[in-house]
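Here is the promised in-class demo. Please do not try to memorize the tokens; focus on the logic of going from shape to residues.
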């Protein structure tokens, strides 16, 4: 088996590693598919490069009219899955800035590092471990499987021994060159802390340095007792949060897969010590079912156990999705023991204990964490939905979103701009617009308007024609099948509500 090494967050003493099967290297057709998806996302209002008029800012993206709707729907679905479906989970919205000691206690100040190296000729910066991993993947593609294996094993040994000079020697001895300059004129390998820092207030000294949070989880840990007491929660219980996180990633690529500013959806579940591994399995299964319920095909998802655990964890796995560039992590499920609460107790000198009346004992709870990036989930959803269907001489492109998360639920389309059809269509808009995100459109032929809705993934197109004026029926055209059916206007609200309800997803979890 071949392995690739991957830095794991949160940190351990140096660069923490997990051993995992090497991701299948994407073939050119798969890369073409990602290019198509990126182009589609931009052209049809889902995702744009940030501050594009100034040529963009690397690894930062903005969401457009349909992108923001899709992302909000995904976040709302996650939120409601956590806080409504489970009566023992409540939410929180902690600030991005936190007391700097938080990050000392969590280990991020000392160890949230990646090893970086610069090429002196191109002045480009790389993650040293990724350069070696990619070289190993190339060797494997050339059929040199044993060589690839030895290389990744050597890298693991060097990183574990904190031997950065050794990592540099490995890069040079393997003849790894900069893809831009083609030379091996490398600097030393240095550790690079991924946290962004800034100054609070007007005095710029060390004491005023604060960080943009690199994960949302610590906002939950430091509020554990506040929430437990004020929401009167009993262990086992969970706290869920959605919010921005920031990481100064050295290499940021693959579109919104790896960003410097992104959003996390994390849930920390507090349990009695000794019960954590049962809860860990339970949450891993629940989260997997959630992805399946949203329509992600089982063969595109896999669980991957971390063979080598970070020091704070006693079990950890990733849920991976097969992106066009291979199987990659979408969500992490971690059994984090009592590491974080214990450390905050130590640094803050405030007890972080819970009195459990059932066992008549005080203890620091153990924690199971489910952590998913909203942007990665967005990319998964987009990759999954993007469909090209070739029939005879035509290719039809449409986005096959689950109706519950589709950005626009229905388009109301009068067949012509006259004969009272727009007025009738507006009555339908009034009927639906307070409960669903809908679009009204009267320009262009009906065929062109159907195509436009396909491209943004609208599940239902509702055509208003002359018959509508006579019998109050409309045509519903279904996105995935393009089939059409005649339906009374009075049934529209109920049908759309049924198809787009989160309940349909919840019932399958
Ligand atoms: P990776 O190995 O891909 O960097 P990680 O193991 O560091 O991820 P975690 O720290 O476990 O990730 O973060 C939890 C989730 O947050 C990830 O599963 C991912 O969905 C998301 N995430 C982490 N880093 C980024 C990023 N730079 N851009 C977008 N999403 C991210």
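The designed amino acids, position by position:
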């Amino acid at each position: 088996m071949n392995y690739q090494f991957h830095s794991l967050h949160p940190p351990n003493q140096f660069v923490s590693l997990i051993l995992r099967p090497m991701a299948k290297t994407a073939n050119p057709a798969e890369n073409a598919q990602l290019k198509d998806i990126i182009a589609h996302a931009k052209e049809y209002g889902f995702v744009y490069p940030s501050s594009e008029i100034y040529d963009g800012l690397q690894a930062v993206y903005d969401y457009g009219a349909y992108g923001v709707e899709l992302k909000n729907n995904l976040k709302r679905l996650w939120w409601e899955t956590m806080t409504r479906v489970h009566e023992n989970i409540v939410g929180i919205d902690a600030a991005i800035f936190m007391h700097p000691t938080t990050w000392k206690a969590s280990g991020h100040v000392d160890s949230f590092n990646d090893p970086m190296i610069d090429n002196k000729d191109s002045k480009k910066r790389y993650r040293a471990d990724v350069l070696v991993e990619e070289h190993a993947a190339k060797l494997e593609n050339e059929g040199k499987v044993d060589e690839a294996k030895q290389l990744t094993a050597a890298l693991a040994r060097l990183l574990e021994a904190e031997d950065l000079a050794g990592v540099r020697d490995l890069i040079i001895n393997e003849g790894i060159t900069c893809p831009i300059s083609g030379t091996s004129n490398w600097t030393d390998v240095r550790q690079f802390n991924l946290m962004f820092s800034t100054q609070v207030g007007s005095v710029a000294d060390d004491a005023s340095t604060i960080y943009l949070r690199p994960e949302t989880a610590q906002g939950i840990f430091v509020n554990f007792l506040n929430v437990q007491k004020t929401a009167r929660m009993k262990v086992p219980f969970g706290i869920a949060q959605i919010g921005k996180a920031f990481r100064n990633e050295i290499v940021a690529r693959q579109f919104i897969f790896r960003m410097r500013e992104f959003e996390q959806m994390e849930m920390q579940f507090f349990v009695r010590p000794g019960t954590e591994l049962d809860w860990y399995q339970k949450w891993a299964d629940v989260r997997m079912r959630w992805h399946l319920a949203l329509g992600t095909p089982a063969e595109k998802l896999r669980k991957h156990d971390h063979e080598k655990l970070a020091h704070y964890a006693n079990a950890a796995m990733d849920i991976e999705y097969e992106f066009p560039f291979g199987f990659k992590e979408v969500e992490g499920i971690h059994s984090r023991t009592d590491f974080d609460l214990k450390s905050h107790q130590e640094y803050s000198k405030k007890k972080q204990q819970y009195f459990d009346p059932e066992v008549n004992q005080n203890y620091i709870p153990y924690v199971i964490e489910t952590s998913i990036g909203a942007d990665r989930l967005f990319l998964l959803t987009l990759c999954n939905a993007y469909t090209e269907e070739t029939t005879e001489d035509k290719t039809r492109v449409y986005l096959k979103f689950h109706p519950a998360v589709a950005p626009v639920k229905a388009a109301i389309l009068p067949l012509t701009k006259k004969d009272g059809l727009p007025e009738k269509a507006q009555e339908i808009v009034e009927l639906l617009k307070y409960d669903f995100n809908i679009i009204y459109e009267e320009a262009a032929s009906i065929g062109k308007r159907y195509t436009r809705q396909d491209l943004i993934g609208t599940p239902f197109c509702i055509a208003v024609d002359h018959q509508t004026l006579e019998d109050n029926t409309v045509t519903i055209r279904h996105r995935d099948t393009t089939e059409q059916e005649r339906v009374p206007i009075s049934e529209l609200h109920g049908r759309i509500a049924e198809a787009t309800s989160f309940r349909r997803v919840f019932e399958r979890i």
